[in-house]
Amino acid sequence: MHEYEVVIIGGGLAGLRAALQVFDAGVDVAVISKVNPLRSHSVAAQGGMNASLGNVRGPEGSVDTWKNHAYDTVKGSDYLADQDAVEIMCREAPLSVIELEHLGTVWSRLENGKIAQRPFGGAGFPRTCYAADRTGHNALHTLYEQVNHRKIPIYEEFFVTSLIRNQERCTGCTALEFLKGEIHGFIAKAVLMATGGFGRIFNKSTNALINTGDGQALALRAGVPLKDMEFVQFHPTTLYGTNILITEGARGEGGMLLNKRGERFMEKYAPGSLDLAPRDVVARSIEEEIAQKRGFEGDYVQLDLRHIGAERIKERLPGIRQISMDFAGIDPVNDPIPVQPGQHYSMGGIDVDINGQTILPGLYAAGECACISVHGANRLGGNSILETVVFGRLVADKIIEDINDLATPPKKQVEKGIKTSKNHLEKIIQSKGLENQFNIKNMLNKTMSTKFGIFRKEDGMLKGLGDIHKMQEIVSTVSIKNKELELNHALIRLLELQGMLHVAESVAISAIERRESRGSHKRTDFPERNDENFLKHTLVKGEAGNMVVSYSPVQLGMFEPEERVY
Description:
- The protein is of the alpha/beta class.
- 37% of the residues lie in helices and 19% in strands.
- The chain contains 16 helices and 21 strands.
- The strands form five sheets. Strands 1, 2, 6, 7, 8, 9 and 16 form a seven-stranded mixed β-sheet that branches. Strands 17-15-10-20-21 form a five-stranded mixed β-sheet. It has a four-stranded antiparallel β-sheet with strand order 11-14-13-12.
- Strand 8 and strand 9 form a beta hairpin.
- Helix 1 runs parallel beside helix 4 (135-149).
- This is succinate dehydrogenase.
């Protein structure tokens, strides 16, 4: 049994930034992570972090502003982003970049010594600050060093099995320690979810294997709704065969997409912004080229960097060059990179207000697992690291503000939660069913990718939802060979799979009910955006064993919806 004022679940950028803020305010805090924090998926963020520093001039020498950043973000979101949250993020962006620098992040530099910035998709200015093509790696190591310097407790390789709640509020959580196979109880006045995305419900994904939607599943089970789960981003350029991310920064440096005829096909789909159109536009364009037999055999196109030159590739894209050589056997200095779209990001997540609060008092969320809705229907590249750092800090500030009004919870509830978790795990361990969990996971991955991918249609999605329901039934008949709790990775994979099936159901139901096309959600049977009926957020909540859909309004204010032309 452990007792802290604040418990943060997740050791990525959002969780670590929040931990620093809470600790520095004199509040007792601990971090729980199912991997060492340096293995969090934040470490894989490559291209950069948006901020209107204005270090590189825009068209005709114009200087970037936070309002320009906000406009690009809202337009890129297909007008589903909440504009009050977007304003906060874009106003706070320059401060957050400088703050990371002061903490120790080493940014790439211009010749004049200022932080370098490069263009990213859907942006009217070169506003993406970067550390070569390892920006997330640099930022995560910086925050981890700061957390260690402060000796903030980190419970690593702990898998959270449940959130503890009474009828009024969240009072802590339970977690399984991998190494010893013991269930721990954590008593807390406030719990912050910072668990990342759910990309591994798809079979072609840039996401780490740990991105299984654990936080979203925990929230559903605790009676907290998920928001906008139908909006799943497919990155246009992942390495063919492995789906390792090839950063948008490669196109920001001048890379061009080519079909098998050698044509720069984005001239046809987005004549104004070409290869730097928003990700949903570029991903659909690549899929269209492949469907029209203009892709290469095996369903890919090429990303050509050769004209950039060896010196610039080695300086600004060293990681991409290394990935290409190691995993594709080609050097982008000499040969184009084979790329195809792959699942990359989750715009939807745990429903929170502008302060990161859920409907359950004491439970907060930040980062990719949350939907404060700064991304709406489509996230712009460079805004994800920004969101984690900005709202990791601001949601922590809200927790600090609230903490004195939250009483210390009684131990009895957490003790009961420990017992419940133990019984649940023992039941799984002792199961004598015949089903193989990895067959179910493969079925889930295939279903999500074929029925809920870049292009969607109602009859296919209904079939996919039915398949998900069947998988939910048979997962209870899975048997695992290892009957011990300690070091039982098969057990962890099964716990993840149970949660993934609930998350997948929320994606499916949300997508079926949204009868329009918006951002990353492209319906071939409803090809147009429908602001009259669907300029609203989708909410999904588990009630009496069923998923119930409702809606909430989008916060407008600065920019009225208009046609997206790139």
